[in-house]
Write a structure and sequence with these properties.
Elements lengths: L3 E9 L2 E8 L8 E4 L1 H10 L1 H14 L2 E2 L4 H10 L10 H12 L5 E5 L2 E6 L4 E4 L6 E3 L2 H7 L10 E4 L5 E2 L1
Parallel strand pairs: 1-4
Antiparallel strand pairs: 1-2, 2-3, 5-6, 5-8, 5-9, 6-7, 9-10
Helix pairs in contact: 1-2, 2-4, 3-4
């Protein structure tokens, strides 16, 4: 079954533009175009309904890719503790943006060693590095480390001299 690999979703002049590639076509060729169906939803039902529709497409698997705020927000939501608070799709994007743009710099460590570099498939750390890789906030650090869930217990975030386990 094919799906769209979404690179970006943007609004210009009350029109929705999507940059995407089809998953079953090789080589991947991204194209940008106006989405009539999403533009119609924005015009007739508003931004909150548009956000809900886009989130639904990501959840169903029709849209994939981690470069959009929508995908990052869903990933962020899935990692929030179960505290009984339900965030509606209409509020999710705004709540995520607040966490994503928060100013609370921190350093990342793995089993006491400073993380030096984080890639898609691996990370490196150095026991002689007492600073650790710097991130602007916990949401961005957790997103960067999302591929390494098997090592989650070993990560430590240090915020202004404090210690906080991942």
């Amino acid at each position: 079954m094919s799906y769209d690999i979404i690179k970006s979703i943007s609004v210009k002049n009350n029109q929705i533009f999507v940059t995407s590639a089809c998953s079953n076509v090789f080589p991947k060729t991204y194209s940008r175009g106006m989405s009539p169906s999403l533009t119609e939803i924005l015009a007739e039902e508003g931004r909150e309904q548009l956000d809900s529709v886009i989130f639904k497409e990501f959840r169903k698997g029709n849209f994939q890719g981690m470069s959009t705020l929508y995908a990052k927000a869903l990933h962020w939501q899935s990692n929030q503790p179960e505290n009984g608070v339900h965030i509606t799709d209409g509020d999710l994007l705004e709540t995520f943006k607040q966490a994503w743009n928060a100013k609370a710099p921190l350093n990342v460590f793995y089993k006491g060693a400073g993380v030096v570099k984080v890639g898609k498939a691996r990370f490196t750390f150095n026991y002689n590095n007492d600073k650790g890789k710097e991130y602007p906030n916990i949401a961005r650090a957790e997103f960067a480390l999302r591929s390494f869930s098997q090592y989650k217990d070993g990560f430590e975030f240090r915020l202004m001299g404090q210690h906080q386990a991942a």
